[in-house]
Amino acid sequence: MTCRELIEFLDEYEAGAQQPEVRAEFERHLRVCPQCRDYLKTYRDTLVLARASCEEHGDRVPDEVPEDLVRAVLAAQREGGAGH
Questions:
Q1: Hey, where are the domains in the chain?
Q2: What contacts 14, CB < 8 A, 6 or more positions away?
């Protein structure tokens, strides 16, 4: 599984967009695995913080984000989009 596949799965899970049997299987695992429940909670908390940051800053990247990080994201997007 790639990082992208993981994020897509979790995004679909959070949106309730998965097939019922897929969701049920994942939830069976969550019931018995505290480590995965903790990870999912952290993922959800991160989404909440990211959305709050976007609401606070609008389309502008916050000043505390290093310029090198912004350039790396832009470069990755260019590279990743080249074959699509």
A1: 3-81
A2: 44, 47
pLDDT, tens only, 70-83: 999 999 989 876 55
Reply yes or no on domain 3-81 having CATH 1.10.10.
yes
Is residue 36 within 8 Å of residue 46, measured between CB atoms?
Answer: no
Q: Model confidence over 41-63: pLDDT tens digits?
A: 999 999 999 888 888 877 788 88
What's the CA gap between 36 and 28, in Å, rounded? 11
* Six-digit token string for 39: 């990870």
Alpha helices by DSSP H, listed for the chain, are 3-15, 20-32, 34-57, 67-81
CB atoms within 10 A of CB 20: 8
Burial of 43 from C-beta contacts in 10 A (0-12 / 13-18 / 19+): middle
